[in-house]
Write a structure and sequence with these properties.
The protein is an alpha+beta fold. 28% of the residues lie in helices and 28% in strands. Strand 6 and strand 7 form a beta hairpin. Helix 1 packs antiparallel against helix 2 and helix 2 runs antiparallel to helix 3. The protein is globular, with a radius of gyration of 16 Å. Keywords: ATP-binding, Kinase, Nucleotide-binding, Serine/threonine-protein kinase, Transferase.
Length: 158
Amino acid sequence: MQKAQLEIRPDPAEVGRARKWARARLAASGARDDEALADALVLLVSELVTNAVVHTGRPAVLRLALPGAEADGSAVRLEVADACGHAPVYRCADGEATGGRGLALVDGLADRWGWTRDEAGKRIWCELDRRAAPAAPAGAADRAGTVPVGGGRAYEAV
């Protein structure tokens, strides 16, 4: 298990830096071929770091725990710690709102997630299970514009 952390300044520009850093750490762990995992991880990093930067206005710490390349069935763990002890708020955004969907995305993408208070503030964490890539039937990517991915999910090609 490889562990790494990145200090995040209270600046919205840090979100992009955190995404690039997370993708590089995942590639260095040997999991670079799992595009679905990488895409989900980067989106989760983006949401949780954005929440920390925007809602607390304080520095944060991004931590990743990454299994090695052959670690099927193990989980990638992402954690963002900040100096604000307030509980995260799961909001229901209306169709026109430009915010308020971050924790809903985390809930939908992560296999598990939660948060804990600590002496310095709080930690919001989530985990993505690594799965062996299923063998796709021949021509599966061509059917109805969908591409099957791990976990039974399918995304429409647009």
